[in-house]
């Protein structure tokens, strides 16, 4: 766990690279001043810093390969790639700014009672997203999921997912991501072995905006 105890250091860092989720703003404000004057967030529509988006994604996003039976498909399975960020509805302005900063790609949908979710699913929009993370790399273990997700993207872009061998490649990739395969997929693809999960070698913080983004997602002030 990374801890910082200096109020002076924290104030200087976040004056230059602000935290912008609602709960972190309230917590940071209380921590430094013991006041409760912040009740909402303001995300400027000219866009967020790219490294802020990366840092926030390191903490809050997910990369997912959806594979489910679909009898009308030639290969018998339907594949969907999903990048998502789910937040409480009070942080909807932040999701709007993330979407805006990524060229307006993706959609924002209601997710459960009090949550909203930013999702990117189309091949065209995913290409923009992948270019972003290629240029402004993730640094947590989520980068390994991204690299596997990118492999899956290339398979789908090349339309290999329309044939059985392509489906097997995607299943092998999915098995190394997140929680792996469901019992149903394991039973359906007994002969498929998972691909090797990439190693995350460099975790250098190249820009303070990345740190601010990650703390906005995962930090706490006590």
Task: Walk me through this protein's architecture.
This protein is α+β, with helices and mostly antiparallel strands and 222 residues long. It has a single domain, classed as Endonuclease I-creI (Roll). The chain is 45% helix and 14% strand. It is built from nine helices and four strands. The protein has a four-stranded antiparallel beta sheet. The longest helix has 16 residues.
Largest sheet: 4 strands, antiparallel
What is the overall shape? globular
Radius of gyration: 19 Å
Name of the CATH homologous superfamily: Homing endonucleases
The low-pLDDT segments are 30-43
CATH topology: Endonuclease I-creI
Could you tell me how far the N terminus lies from the C terminus, measured between alpha carbons in angstroms? Answer: 14 Å
DSSP summary, beta strand count: 4
Count of the domains = 1
The proportion of strand residues reads: 5-15%
Numbering strands along the chain, what is their spatial order in the largest sheet? 1-2-4-3
The chain-level structural class is alpha+beta
Give the overall pLDDT as a whole number.
85
Total count of helical runs of at least 4 residues: 9
SSE arrangement, N to C: HHHEEHEEHHHHH
Brief summary of the model shown:
By secondary structure, the chain is α+β, with helices and mostly antiparallel strands. 45% of the residues lie in helices and 14% in strands. Residues 30-43 have low confidence and may be disordered.
Any descriptors?
222 residues; alpha+beta; Endonuclease I-creI; 45% helix; 14% strand; globular
């Amino acid at each position: 766990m990374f801890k910082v105890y200096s109020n002076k250091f924290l104030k200087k860092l976040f004056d230059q690279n602000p935290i912008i989720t609602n709960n972190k703003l309230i917590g940071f404000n209380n921590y430094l001043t013991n006041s409760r004057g912040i009740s909402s967030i303001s995300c400027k529509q000219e866009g967020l810093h790219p490294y802020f988006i990366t840092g926030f994604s390191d903490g809050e996003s997910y990369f997912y390969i959806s594979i489910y039976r679909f009898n009308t498909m030639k290969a018998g399975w339907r594949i969907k790639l999903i990048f998502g960020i789910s937040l409480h509805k009070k942080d909807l302005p932040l999701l709007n700014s993330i979407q805006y900063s990524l060229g307006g790609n993706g959609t924002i949908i209601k997710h459960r009672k009090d949550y909203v979710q930013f999702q990117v699913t189309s091949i065209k929009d995913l290409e923009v997203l992948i270019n972003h993370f290629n240029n402004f790399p993730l640094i947590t273990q989520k980068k390994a999921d991204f690299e596997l997700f990118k492999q899956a993207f290339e398979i789908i872009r090349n339309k290999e997912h329309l044939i059985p061998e392509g489906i097997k490649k995607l299943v092998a990739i999915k098995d190394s991501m997140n929680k792996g395969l469901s019992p149903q997929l394991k039973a359906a693809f007994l002969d498929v072995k998972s691909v090797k999960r990439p190693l995350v070698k460099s975790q250098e913080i190249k820009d303070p905006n990345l740190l601010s983004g990650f703390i906005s997602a995962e930090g706490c002030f006590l």
